[in-house]
Amino acid sequence: MFKKILVPLDGSQIAERILDQVENLARIHDAEVILIRVAFSHALTNEKLAEREEQAVADAKAYLTGVEERVKSSGIKVSSLTPCGHAAEKIVEHARISNCDLIVMSTHGRSGLGQFVLGSVAIKVLHVATVPVLLYRISE
Asked: How does 93-110 read in b/e, with b if 16+ C-beta sit within 10 Å?
C-alpha cells in the first residue's frame, strides 16, 4: 500500500492531467499526496541569481497553492513543496526526505533526438529513485 505519493508538476496543463489518476490512487490507498514544483533559475551573476531564485520559488508556491486547493476539494490530504535546484535531483531527494513510497509523474513520451536534446526529468528520476516510479504518458 502507498501512504505518501509524490507528484512532480512543471506548471503545464499537460503535467496536471495526471492529477485525476493520482486522486484515484490516493483514494484507493488512503494516501497523502505531496505536490512538488522545483524552481530553477539562470543568471549571469550570483547577485542576480539570488533574486531570480527567490522569484522562481514564489512563482512555484503561487502555482502549487491553486493546484493544492483543487486536490484538497476532492477530499484528498495534500501538501506541497517548492525547492530550488535541478528537478530530477530535488524530486528524488524530497521523495526520500518525505518518506514517500511512490512517485507519480507524467511524461511527454519524447524519444530519440528530442529526448537527448531536451533531456527527460522523468527518465532521470526513474534511473535514480529508490522508490517505485509510476509514469503516465500524456499525449499533447
From this structure: bbbeeeebbbbbbbbbee
Tell me how far CA of residue 53 lies from CA of 9, 36, 38, 69, in angstroms: 18, 16, 11, 24
Q: Pull the grid cell for residue 68.
A: 493544492
The DSSP output letter for 85 is S
How many angstroms separate the CA atoms of 14 and 114, rounded? 17
SS3 category, 110: coil
Identify the three-state secondary structure at position 122: helix
Q: Are 111 and 139 in contact (CB under 8 A)?
A: no
Residue 61: phi, psi to the nearest 5? -65, -45
Residues 79-110 have pLDDT tens digits of: 999 998 889 999 999 999 999 999 999 876 55
- Number of other CB atoms surrounding residue 9 within 10 Å: 20
Instruction: Provide the sign of the torsion angle of the four alpha carbons 55, 56, 57, 60, taken in this order.
Output: positive
pTM value surpassing 0.90 = no
Task: Tally the residues of the chain.
Answer: 140
